Amino acid sequence: MYKEVGRVVEVWKSSTIVYDMQLVYLLVALGIYGHVFAASRGYVEIPLERSSDSMYYVESLRVGKRQQELKNVILDTGSADVVLTRSTYQYEKSLFTPEYVAQYGSSEPFEMFQQNETISGNGWALKGATFGVTNVSDIDSFYGVFGIGYAAIEAMDPYENFPMKLESLGLIDYQVYSVSGRASHGSIVFGGIDSGAYKGPLVKTQIGFEVGPLATREYHTVTAVTVSSIKVASHNSRTSISTQKLIYTLDTGSNGLMVPEPVYTNLVTAIHAKKQWHDDTPLFHQDGLAAESLTFDITGFPVSIPLTDLIDECTAIRGVQYCTLRIGIVDIGTNSYVATLPNSIFKYIYTVFDLQANQVFMAPYAPLASKSIKHVSNTHFPVETTTAPNYNDVYSTMYQSSDETTVHRSSSTKNCRR
After folding, report:
1. How far apart are CA 373 and CA 57, in angstroms?
2. Is the pLDDT of residue 13 over 70?
3. How far apart are CA 72 and CA 3, in angstroms?
4. Could you tell me the pLDDT band of residue 95, with boundaries at 50, 70 and 90?
5. Gap between the Cα atoms of 344 and 388, Å rounded
6. Beta strands 311-317; 202-206: pairing state
7. Residue 251 in this model has a pLDDT that exceeds 60
8. pLDDT-derived band of residue 41, with 50, 70 and 90 as boundaries?
9. Pairing state of beta strands 176-180 and 349-354?
10. Do 341 and 296 contact (CB within 8 A), yes or no?
11. Which region holds residue 162: left if phi is over 0, alpha if psi is between -120 and 50, else beta?
């Protein structure tokens, strides 16, 4: 089962926006600010550990005077709050006064309160960092969520979240962060770019706006980019499964692919691997999946991942391994206004998020990485950049399922008994 941190989902009605929160919150005013003590290098680097299912965990972070080490806490570019459970952060029980209710993915709603303490890493310490504390033992099996997305989707009263606080207190000069999702030596760098991690120039594209039937949102809520098309490749064939533009989130906290129903249907049809069906769930021949891949066209910058990256659970059917895939359906205009790319994408591209200029920069990894972190002080990056070929051809009209392409391919499928 893939994990996806909950999102603010909106229903558009007439010319107004009505909020139907997946991430529910009760607003209580509170704001305490501290000071920062850090090395003067101008950037903050946090090591990342990648699990077998492509979840990224922050490493070597400590909280509070007792220097409690954070464990099993995922990095999440798709939410804005750092939220810690009792399994990784011990607090005085007398402090727990529920102020907010939050929900992530398939987790049950939980109560939390706002805390301000020092968060520190190797060579830096941020005093007065704001985070949420909950009495539950886990959130979708994780002990915490390290949210670093747009502050517009904060679950607590407006405050300076982690990237904002780093900048406002002088630990970094500019709100930019770079994700290296390689299996070894993965990291996220706030306020800097590791020019030794990738090859070629960084390719720039725009962070997109959510689009409704009558209006386009005027501010950003998610780190989503325009995907112009999606193709399935197998041996020497390529099949287009989506030709409509739509914004897809680049979300380190979601290891599943979430697409509109027509794209899901096209994908299942286009996969050449033998299929078995259990109720309404397709299972694919594991060895057959190894020869297939998905390519996402991000405003002219193609990114490919093997379908095996999406394997969820496998089972033996008459001695042969068949697997489900971490693929879900979103209903654009009903339960979401964005789709989601799987976080395995970070295994193949170095990614820089510029939340001040609302842009994302991407480049393939260098074969032999050698660390060379450049400090970023403004919108003019100290490394070579270029513009995506279709930089200005962005998502601007709400996705319509009826206009999506349809894939027709005859294949033998069977129902299975498990």
Report:
1. 21
2. no
3. 14
4. low
5. 21
6. unpaired
7. yes
8. confident
9. antiparallel
10. yes
11. alpha
